[in-house]
Amino acid sequence: MEFTFYKYQGTGNDFVIIDNRELFFPKENTALVAKICDRRFGVGADGLLLLEKHHSADFRMVYYNSDGNLSSMCGNGGRCISHFAKFLGIISEKTTFEAVDGMHEATVEKDWVSLKMNDVEKVNVSKNYTFLNTGSPHHVELVSDLKDVDVFTSGRNIRNKIYGKEGANVNFVAQNDDAVFSVRTYERGVEDETLSCGTGVTAVAIAMFEMGKTSENKVTLKTPGGQLQVRFEKDGLGYKNVFLEGPAKQVFKGIWK
Ligand SMILES: N[C@@H](CCC[C@H](N)C(=O)O)C(=O)O
Fold first, then answer.
1. Is 64 strand, coil or helix?
2. Which of 115, 197, 228, 242 is catalytic?
3. Is 74 a catalytic site residue?
4. pTM greater than 0.90 (yes/no)
5. What is the per-residue pLDDT across 69-94, written as a single tens digit (0 to 9) for each?
6. What percent of the chain has pLDDT over 70?
7. Given ligand 1 and candidates 139, 170, 197, 228, which is best to mutate, with the most ligand atoms within 8 Å of its CB?
8. Could you report the per-residue pLDDT of 49-62, keeping only the tens digit for each?
9. Burial status of residue 2 (CB atoms within 10 A of its CB: 0-12, 13-18, 19 or more)
10. Beta carbons of 14 and 44 less than 8 angstroms apart
11. Overall fold of domain 123-242
């Protein structure tokens, strides 16, 4: 099977994106998705995104983790696919699209994408960590030695021992300044540390506000792959008008054979 694909990265979280408006892609073929995402036998990516037609919105986003399975919302993927929709001429600057967790709005200005995330209903703060869902489930834990954390081993243990079969993504965080945090994330479905996670940094920003670590509602998140901004409004027990903002880039185009 031969088809054109595009490779994108958003702060180092990388994706293969395919224009599937003609519905040619075999969506049930998880082995093919995993092979495309394999860094030695395929293109290599943290995930694969399909752009499809939608009856009322600009497009639909279908997201697979690199293990080949469909998953929950991907924030950096949402920013990259919005950039791709502009590249295809489906949208100009602003878009509304549907993802697995519902409708999203985004604005694309050159290689900078602002993505509206879903409202967060509640944040569970416990003694050693905070858990919340920003479209995907996230464990957030403050650490004193971020650069020395074994993200793979500790992240995998937490993902499996606390969250069981369904799992969760695990974010380790250090505070740099009042509204600046560094984050390293173990991603479920990639089963490794990635260079950045959009729903993860969104979860970190909100968790830090909820825990009283910052009083700012616009937070800078530094990841190993680059810098993102998250802004939000507190709304009762939850959060609304949550925006994830940062760079997204098309890095190459290829033919899968
Ligand atoms: N990289 C993503 C998160 C993708 C989903 C996650 N791996 C999961 O299965 O929960 C992001 O940028 O949000």
1. strand
2. 197
3. yes
4. yes
5. 999 999 999 999 999 999 999 999 99
6. 100
7. 197
8. 999 999 999 999 99
9. exposed
10. yes
11. Diaminopimelate Epimerase; Chain A, domain 1 (3.10.310)
Closest ligand 1 atom to Cα of 46: 1
Domain 3-117+248-256 and domain 123-242, same fold? Reply is yes
The tokens for 7 are 């490779």
Cα of 211 vs centre of ligand 1, distance in Å, is 23
pLDDT single digits (tens) 232-250? 999 999 999 999 999 999 9
> What are the residue ranges spanned by the domains of the chain?
3-117+248-256, 123-242
> Which residue owns the Cα nearest ligand 1 atom 2?
74
CATH of segment(s) 3-117+248-256: 3.10.310.10
Ligand 1 close to Cβ of residue 13 (< 6 A): yes
Q: Is 197 a catalytic residue?
A: yes
Position 149 scores a pLDDT of: 98
Q: Calculate mean pLDDT across residues 97-121.
A: 98
The predicted complex's ipTM stands at 0.97
CA–CA gap between residue 44 and residue 39 (Å, rounded) = 4
Query: Residue 236 C-alpha to ligand 1 middle, in angstroms?
Result: 26
pLDDT at 6: 99
136 Cα: distance to centroid of ligand 1 (angstroms): 6
Report the SS3 class of residue 34.
helix
Q: For the chain, what is the mean pLDDT?
A: 98
| Cβ within 8 Å of residue 225, ≥6 positions away | 9, 11, 12, 13, 194, 195, 196
